[in-house]
What does this fold into?
Amino acid sequence: MAARLHPAPAPNQEVVDLQRLSSRDLEPLLSEEIATWRAELEWDFEKSAELVRRFMDLRALNGSALVEDGAIKGYAYYVLEESKGLIGDLFVRRDVRTVERENALLASVLEPMMANPQIVRVESQLMMIEPALVRDTPQSEWLRRFERNFMRLDLRQAALQEGRVRQPIRLGKWSDSFQEPAAHLIAAAYAGHIDGQINDQYRTTAGARRFLYNIVQYPGCGAFYRPATYAAFDIASGRMCGVSLTSIVAADCGHITQICVIPQVRGKGVGHELLRQSLVALRDAGCRSASLTVTAANLEAVTLYERVGFETIRHFPAYVWEGF
Ligand SMILES: CC(C)(COP(=O)(O)OP(=O)(O)OC[C@H]1O[C@@H](n2cnc3c(N)ncnc32)[C@H](O)[C@@H]1OP(=O)(O)O)[C@@H](O)C(=O)NCCC(=O)NCCS
It folds into this structure.
């Protein structure tokens, strides 16, 4: 792909490699980003910011900063995992946030990944960009866009009423021995599903293993929270048929990082019961609210969440690029 992606920067604008900067240079922007995550999504971004600082100071973070008149106005970074690139974050300071500036940063991280012969796929979920439903993007002819919803539930108001489970199941609190059956379950639950187009880890058991490993070890989606994480087992076969994974994203806020049920037992109240138990456990742990993200076109899931009382408070895009 020979096309130049960078829109011409304005005369006072410069796109600078993050490896030329230190975490101290980025600090005002990171402070604003931490405050923004807290105010808008009730998430504590501090642990993610700490990882950014650490990798910046090791000069090991791939990405760019947008510098104007000597001040950093935005940044974006990416990580490479085997043949896949992931845009980890893209944030522009509120007083200068424009689609043009965000696109300059998006282009600056897409370009090296798309030009890298090892990289055949790029994924991104950009929760902090301008939420305009229609916007230009660099290389729009190559990027697929999926609408995602950020949803939130006020646990102090939620009824969390029991439903009728029309399938003999037993629920178990998370144990590390669930990791392997859960990886098989995730791959089965997402076979042919739209979310497998957004995150290719859902497509195979090996990918689902990596997804689970990351979610348990790393703070990107909050700190994995075992006491509110449940698996459902089919009584007759003893096999795992659903999971609801949770994390803590701020001292008083929980998050549903994953919920899925195998196709054979869907529509029987298992998903609702898993979700309800996780939300009750989060509330018992002192959480005021719970959040989750969902693909807008995933109506089964959106209907379930709305029925429980979740409301969409933000729309954000997921972009995917696939090479040849
Ligand atoms: C979303 C999912 C977990 C729901 O699990 P489930 O066990 O089928 O859900 P339930 O049977 O508890 O359904 C709960 C409610 O959701 C709604 N619902 C379920 N399927 C629906 C459908 N096909 N159309 C419309 N609404 C539906 C109904 O309101 C239903 O209430 P009811 O029990 O009164 O009929 C399941 O469909 C799934 O695993 N999907 C694939 C993975 C996925 O999309 N996960 C969510 C990612 S954010």
